[in-house]
Design goal:
- It is a single chain.
- The protein has 76 residues and is mainly alpha-helical.
- The protein has two helices and two strands; from the N terminus they run E-H-E-H.
- The chain has a domain of 47 residues.
- A two-stranded parallel sheet has the order 1-2.
- Helix 1 links the parallel strand 1 and strand 2.
- Helix 1 packs antiparallel against helix 2.
- The radius of gyration is 16 Å and the shape is elongated.
């Protein structure tokens, strides 16, 4: 049997915190909407992330990674 010398690092967790996986929310389907609607959705998802973080949620991806991914998914 092979022993693991470096166990995977667990994310830091506060008591009762929910950890959201990378890739949430997925915005691919919104690429079909007009550009103005995609910009509105982009602003909404940023506000939602801020709200959830203020209420103790923890995200695996950094805010910058999140914004970059959402902008790419929305083709902005």
């Amino acid at each position: 049997m092979t022993s693991i010398t470096k166990p995977a690092q667990a994310l830091p967790q506060r008591a009762g915190a929910l950890i959201m996986p990378s890739g949430w929310p997925c915005c691919d389907l919104f690429k079909l909407f007009p550009e103005e609607a995609r910009w509105q959705f982009y602003e909404w998802v940023k506000q939602q992330r801020t709200f959830l973080e203020q209420h103790g949620w923890i995200f695996e991806e950094s805010y910058d990674e999140y914004v970059r991914r959402v902008a790419e998914e929305l083709a902005l």
